[in-house]
Amino acid sequence: MKVGFVQFEPSFGSVDKNIEKAEKLIDSADANLLVLPELFNTGYVFTSKEEAMALSEEIPVGKTTQALMRIAKNNHVFLVAGLAENNGDKLFNSAVIVSPKGYLGTYRKIHLFFEEKLWFDPGDAEAAVYDIGQYKFGAMICFDWFFPETMRVLSLKGAHIVCHSANLVLPFCQDAMKTRCLENRVFAVTANRTGAETRGEKFLQFTGKSQVISPNAEILCRAGSDTEEVKIVDIDMEMAANKRLNEYNDLFADRRPEFYGQLLNKKNKEAFQK
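Request: output the structure for the sequence above.
Response:
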């Protein structure tokens, strides 16, 4: 399966321009699954909740999701892309998932970073997994990587690959994702943005270095820190179906959830013990 990322520098507030740029990059790619950055269509550094709301869209009827469905159909590719979701009186930092046949689902970011807490509501549901042929993938967004439970839940739900839309500013994630993949025996595609945004007195520099990581913690491909590019790698998804480390150890079979009580609440304890 050919999977990869689209890395570029969005222009703040220029939704049509950002969609057009992403489409041009995707049109040059030969892939089954591509991941775009967090908030790829709007940029990241909002100055007020009103501004964030004004740039948000409903899913799937908004222009960005509609454009992504068209792009996915034209290029025969699954896409995962981040945008601000308008859901009535709530505003979510979301990732939309589309296939060549149309809209599949939405993931709403659970772990909000820094000033995101001023603009967005926290995600209100567990991340789902989606079928891509005989394999499955799930989505998470940026700061979710800091919480190992996020990828563990997706992996326990059967995800072979985790699609990670991001706007990374901290220096840790790219290396930490090797551990996340190793401890869950899954692939991960981190699609980060590049460049910087200055809005008034606010300034953020983004780190680029989008990447694909294997279940063995190998960097299969990585972009530069300031390049606009698409990188695709042909992966063997069966690697993520095999949770065995050796003849005696199976990563998931060896779990001891009866001793993980501090991690579980009453509602999900039974599910994790199965």
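Residues 27 and 75 are 7 Å apart (CA to CA).
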